[in-house]
Amino acid sequence: QSLAASLAAAQTVWAGVDNKGLRGLLPAEQKPLADKIDAAYATSLKLFNDNQRSLNELLADEAGREQLNAIYDSLNV
């Protein structure tokens, strides 16, 4: 849960309050990049929220490590 909370906090820094976060600093021509980052956060948060296992449980077996890799890969934009 703490990883999901950290990711949600990072998304808040990106989007900001009242859309006054880092995203707002990008010029209009960077909108496709901003949209990709938005989508990456949404995908990663969904993967975290769909997961019911703790980080220790995920690290304990190969399937869990693959699931973690998928979450981290979803942030790679």
Characterize the structure shown:
The protein has one domain. The chain has helices at 2-15, 31-50, 55-60, 62-74. 69% of the residues lie in helices and 0% in strands. It contains 4 helices and no strands. The chain has 77 residues and is mainly alpha-helical. The mean pLDDT is 92. The longest helix is centred in the middle third of the chain and has 20 residues, at 31-50.
Quick rundown:
With 77 residues, the chain is mostly helical.
Task: Describe the SSE topology.
Elements: H1 2-15, H2 31-50, H3 55-60, H4 62-74
Helix pairs in contact: 1-2, 2-4
- Assess the beta-strand content as a share of residues: under 5%
The helix/strand class is mainly alpha
Shape: elongated
Count of all domains: 1
Q: Report the total helices.
A: 4
Mean pLDDT metric: 92
Radius of gyration: 14 Å
Helix content: 55-70%
